[in-house]
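haha ok so turns out i had the wrong file open the whole time. this is the CORRECT one, sorry everyone. sequence first:
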Amino acid sequence: MADSNLKTLQLAFTAHLRDPDNNPAPAGIEDRRMGIYRDLLYNNIEGFIARGFPVIRCLYSDADWQRMVRDFFSRHKCQSPYFLEISQEFLVYLQNEREPQPEDPAGLLELAHYEWVELALSVADETNSLEGIDVNGDLLSGRPVLSALAWSLAYTLPVHKMSPDYLPAPTPEQPSYLLVYRNRDDEVKFMEINPVTARLFFLLENNSDMSGKQALAQIAQEMNHPNPEVVMQGGLSTLQELHAHGIILGTRR
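then structure:
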C-alpha cells in the first residue's frame, strides 16, 4: 500500500513539473517549494535546447519559443538520460510530435537537423586510424580513404544561411549540399559543396575499392560531359582540397 501511494505521489509530482497548467501539484506540498523544482528543471531543459539550436531560437518570439519548449517538456518521453542527448530528443520531437504552427519557419526540420549535427559530430565516438593509409598517396590512381568524422548532408533549403534576416523561399531551385567534418584540432567545420563534389564523396564513401580516377570517370559518364578531362582536372583539385582539410586521410596502401 505504501509503495502504491509513493508511486502515485511521484507520478503526480512529475506530471505537475512537466505541465503545471494542466496538472495540480500533490496535496500538502508548499507551492514555493514546488516552484523551485518547476523553474530548475524547465530552465535547465530550455537552456540546453536554446544553446543547441541558437538559430531556431532567434526565429521565434519569446512567447512562441517558450510555448514550444514547454510542449516538448510536457509531451515528449525522452529515451536517454544524458544531457548531451537532449538536442537529439528535441529533434525527434520536432520530427514526430510537434504539430505545425503558423509561426514555424519554412524548413524548420531541416534547420533543426543542421544545428543538431554540429553537437552530434563534436561528441561522436568514431576515430581515425592511419594504419594502412598512405597520407601522401596519389589521389587519382590510389583509393582515397575518407575520414570517419566527415558527413555529407543535403538539404532542400540553404539552412546554413538562415537567420532572422534571411528566410529563404520554401521551394528553391537547387538543394544545398554541405560537408561537415571534425578536423585535426577536434573543431567541427562546415563546407558548402556543389552536387559534383557531393556525388564524389558518395562514391568514395560507398566504394572503398574505387580509385579517385574511377570515381571521376563515372561522374563524367553520368554527366555525359563532352570533355571528361575537364571533370578529371576539376576533380583532382577537389580531392586535394578535401585532403588538405583532413576529409580525405590519404589513400589505401
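The chain has a mean pLDDT of 93.
again sry for the mixup
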